[in-house]
Design brief:
The complex is a heterodimer of chains A (556) and B (370). Chain A is mainly alpha-helical. Chain A has 21 helices and two strands. Helices cover 72% and strands 2% of the residues of chain A. A two-stranded antiparallel sheet of chain A has the order 1-2. The N terminus of chain B is likely disordered. The chains are: A mainly alpha (556), B alpha/beta (370).
Chain lengths: 556, 370
């Protein structure tokens, strides 16, 4: 018992100080029985319904797409695999403004797809006015697609990690007993994957449930989730009591959802092989078709929308007056060179190298901090007792709780302390921690206790047992967790809802700064910065993933 | 037993330490980029005093202008950005008992009434106020002092109207004409201040009993509403870098000057212009105030004087795309040529706004979005 309390000490202190204390301070400040009246409750009900509806649909779609992808990455080897895997993670950290710009270039009224369709259609009918572009921005479809785009990587990482950690002997045994592929998949593999699929669904659902930027930017003004409504009420209408009521309801929903989840996910400790099954090159025709089809799909879905950003960062668009074609693109490197010039001698100019270093510094600190806090919590959760049953749902709360409200709570709780730049990695860790814990916990649970005991009985010291038994199994999960923390920190922008010190800008902040001023040069520089962010993230993920498991050099 | 043997062969400490190495490097980078704690004893001679200034996100100033103030008064200024003006005011209200900063800049006339009613400002009758026309001085008790002003207008893409042989709209009434169908994009007043200001302009022009009719007609004429300025200007608007589908956008009177100053290649003419009909632009005045509870009152007063000085005022147009409030400050060439001050702007009293904001936005939402 004392060991458990020791394990929980750091993570719970952290959450208590940085989540529960500020959150309850703001609720205590804002909550007011006067707001509980009919028309407010009607608003709450409408918003709540839509919030659940879109989150449920988004999660379902994300699973539909993510599960085959997880299978692809866990079981097959093909050219460009690690790059593709890294690229599917990139959206996870891109600021919403940038993603919206990418989707618009592809699917907007003047995007490539609509222009191609218009040309095709006009070619068929020989008229130039009859084609109306397919609407994208401002539809529920845009919200769903953006959520899938953002969150598929969660399913891929958690489930493919569990899948490649499965002991292949289990499936072999089922086959040798006469089960065909479908039966093996349905009765052996899927049940073994259940904990990881549930964990991924929960994280995806909560992300969609608390969605804010996607709803605002791609859904447009006719859609509002709880978080969007809280933002409007608290920060635009200055109606803090109603915002507090909404935040309280959102917290309650998150809690109920997390409890349901922990009931469902009776943590089955799935024993995994210390040496994972090697993925192989596709052999049969069916395998080849599967790999090829999903490769093309992943490329089209994840890479194409993002491709428009680097393209726009090296092309300038000129309006040609009176000419036949109104638009004229030309190649330029101006936006990149301009990044390095403080043309207006602004005090808040962001040198790109410094923004990159700040971003990397914050990301590094977030990785270390969230692993330090995540390991003890995940270890305790891996062998759950009564305490863990109670704590498990609470640990997930920060993910589904209102970030806008929390930011305001920070102001009340910490005041001027917030001006310290150290708050930034702390806030990033708060977001990253649930991911780190969910990623580590199944891996820790899967370590066969027998192996430990055997190693110890052969005379291995506790450190050697950890080094030789635990670490080889945990390594992949640790790298996954580190990747999550790294990308969350690189792309996180919401922490600036707190108080931003302009002298320590990150790349996302630099992007927003450029986009908040008119002028072609500013737009181009924003795209150049976004390209820099994508490149940095991709490189970072590849670097983390290249940390190979000792002795398995051909493992991806 | 064989299984254990296999596992025990695996260790290659170098690989494990590789991972640790990456983490250590990351930690070092973090440490290298981390702030040096503000240590007054580090400087020789008399230690500079510290002054904290909270601003909205759009605040900007030239490096040399701030340095001049810091050197003249032996002070180190820390700027803190508190989000947009509404967010910043919220933070100031929540932290009233222990203020986050000594000076706060950026509350505008649409938020002034709320800011004054919560009593967060320390009054200060700066001697520099005598250089500012009385029309800008909305707070008679000198708690909030005007710094700059700007205009939210409908901005149009000149090339679109040239190539389509169409004259650009001249007034709010023109916008509901069929030739401009589907051409106007605006920001949602519930989530964006230019959108809200444009709504205020129509309320001023058409009156509280008729403005919703106007909006219903605008809606029928294909009005496009998006979340915020960045989307409206860079995604929907055809006149800037985004190559959008709308030739009219609710934005700022100074955009033409900014498009000239921030063009990729030098241009002779602005690609966009503001529509300046009667009441078609909403007048916005931004204020600075000293926050109650400051420990550096004298210094804060000096900083307020400085914001109203000729040096700072002349820096305002180029850095923040707004006009100075002090008389006789010379403007940049691009402002004089392409961004004249609108002659018949709309205004509403900030008490009116404070009392009706929520109801107006709700009524607008019901009429235009639902």
């Amino acid at each position: 018992m004392t060991r458990r309390i020791l394990l929980w000490l750091a993570p719970l202190t952290f959450l208590g100080l940085l989540f529960f204390y500020p959150f309850f301070r703001i609720l205590a400040f804002g909550l007011n029985l006067g707001t509980v009246k009919a028309d407010n409750l009607q608003l709450v009900f409408h918003v709540l319904l839509f919030t659940f509806y879109q989150a449920f649909l988004s999660t379902l779609l994300t699973l539909l797409i993510g599960l085959p992808c997880a299978y692809l990455f866990a079981r097959f080897d093909f050219h460009g695999k690690s790059l593709l895997r890294a690229l599917t993670t990139v959206p996870f950290m891109l600021p919403t403004v940038v993603v919206a710009a990418g989707f618009n270039a592809l699917l907007g009224p003047r995007g490539w797809i609509n222009i191609a369709l218009a040309n095709l259609f006009n070619g068929l009918t020989h008229s130039s006015t009859s084609f109306s572009p397919i609407p994208f921005v401002g539809t529920l479809g845009a919200i769903l697609i953006a959520h899938v785009f953002y969150n598929t990587t969660i399913v891929i990482r958690l489930v493919s990690n569990a899948l490649s950690g499965l002991d292949p002997k289990l499936e072999h045994a089922a086959r040798s007993l006469g089960a065909d592929n479908r039966r093996v998949g349905w009765h052996v593999t899927l049940p073994l994957l259940r904990p990881s699929i549930l964990a991924a669904s929960l994280l995806v659902f909560l992300f969609d449930f608390a969605s804010f930027g996607v709803i605002l930017l791609l859904g447009g003004p006719t859609f509002a989730t709880l978080e969007v409504e809280i933002y409007i009420q608290a920060l635009q209408m200055l109606n803090l009591p109603l915002a507090a009521l909404l935040a309280f309801i959102q917290l309650l929903c998150t809690l109920i959802f997390s409890i349901l989840y922990t009931r469902l996910a009776t943590h089955v400790a799935v024993q995994s092989a210390p040496r994972q099954a090697y993925p192989h090159h596709p052999r049969t025709i069916r395998e080849k078709i599967f790999v090829f089809a999903f490769f093309v799909f992943l490329f089209a879905f994840f890479v194409l929308p993002m491709l428009s950003l680097p393209l726009r960062s090296v092309s300038s668009l000129d309006v040609v007056r009176g000419g036949g074609t109104p638009f004229h693109y030309s190649l330029t490197s101006d936006y990149y060179s301009e990044l390095f010039i403080n043309r207006r001698d602004s005090l808040f100019y962001v040198p790109p190298i410094q923004a990159a270093l700040n971003s990397l510094g914050y990301a590094g600190a977030t990785v270390i901090l969230s692993l330090l806090l995540g390991f003890p919590a995940a270890s305790a959760l891996a062998r759950p007792g009564r305490l863990e049953k109670f704590l498990d749902p609470i640990l997930i709360l920060p993910l589904g709780a209102s970030a806008v409200t929390l930011a305001l709570g920070f102001i009340i709780a910490f005041g001027r302390l917030l001006i310290s730049p150290w708050v930034v990695p702390l806030a990033h860790t708060l977001v990253a921690l649930p991911f780190v814990i969910r990623t580590l916990q199944p891996a820790i649970a899967s370590i066969p206790e027998r192996l430990r005991q055997a190693a110890a009985s052969l005379g291995a010291s506790p450190f050697r047992v950890w080094q030789n038994v635990d670490w080889p199994i945990l390594r992949r999960a640790t790298l996954n967790a580190a990747t999550f923390a790294f990308t969350i920190s690189l792309g996180e922008f919401g922490a600036t809802l707190l108080l931003a010190r302009p002298d320590y800008p990150t790349i996302p902040i630099a992007i927003y700064r450029f986009l908040s001023q008119p002028g072609a040069l500013n737009y181009g520089q924003a795209m150049a910065m976004a390209t820099l962010l994508m490149a940095l993230t991709t490189a970072g993920i590849l670097l983390i993933e290249k940390q190979r498991l000792p002795g398995t050099e051909n493992f991806f | 037993m064989k299984k254990v043997g296999q596992v025990l062969q695996v260790p290659q400490v170098s690989k494990v330490s590789q991972v640790l190495l990456v983490m250590v490097v990351a930690a070092l980078v973090a440490a290298a980029c981390s702030p040096k704690p503000a240590s007054p004893q580090a400087t020789t001679g008399s230690a500079p005093q510290a002054l904290t200034v909270m601003t909205h996100d759009s605040f900007s100033v030239s490096d040399n202008v701030i340095q001049a103030f810091e050197q003249a008064h032996n002070v180190k200024i820390t700027f803190v950005k508190g989000g947009d003006a509404g967010e910043m005011l919220n933070k100031a209200i929540l932290s009233k008992s222990a203020p986050l900063a000594d000076v706060m800049y950026g509350v505008d006339n649409t938020l002034l009434s709320e800011a004054l009613s919560v009593d967060i400002y320390e009054p200060y009758a700066s001697p520099a106020l005598k250089n500012i026309p009385a029309g800008f001085q909305l707070d008679s008790s000198d708690r909030a002092l005007p710094v700059d002003h700007g205009y939210v207008c409908v901005v149009y893409d000149k090339a679109y109207f040239n190539t389509h042989n169409l004259s650009a709209p001249q007034s709010l009434e023109d916008l509901i004409k069929p030739e401009y169908k589907g051409l106007l994009v605006m920001e949602n007043p519930a989530t964006s201040s230019p959108g809200l200001d444009f709504l205020f302009a129509t309320i001023k022009h058409f009156g509280t009993s008729n403005y919703l009719d106007y909006w219903k007609q605008l809606r029928a004429n294909g009005l496009v509403v998006v979340d915020g300025w960045e989307t409206a200007y860079y995604t929907n608007f055809s006149g800037s870098a985004g190559q959008g589908a709308q030739a009219l956008v609710v934005s700022y009177a100074t955009d033409p000057a900014y498009e000239v100053m921030s063009a990729s290649t030098p241009v002779a003419d602005a690609s966009v212009a503001a529509m300046v009909g009667p009441d078609s632009c909403f007048h916005q005045i931004e204020f600075v105030g000293i926050l109650k509870g400051t420990q550096h009152l004298a210094l804060a007063q000096k900083f307020v004087d400085f914001m109203l000085s000729a040096q700072f005022q002349a820096d305002v147009p180029g850095q923040m795309a707004v006009y100075p409030v002090v008389s006789n400050i010379s403007l940049p060439d691009a402002f004089i040529k392409f961004a004249p001050i609108p002659s018949q702007p709309a205004t509403l009293s900030s008490d009116d706004i404070a009392n009706n904001r929520q109801a107006w936005v709700q009524a607008w939402t019901d009429a235009v979005l639902h």
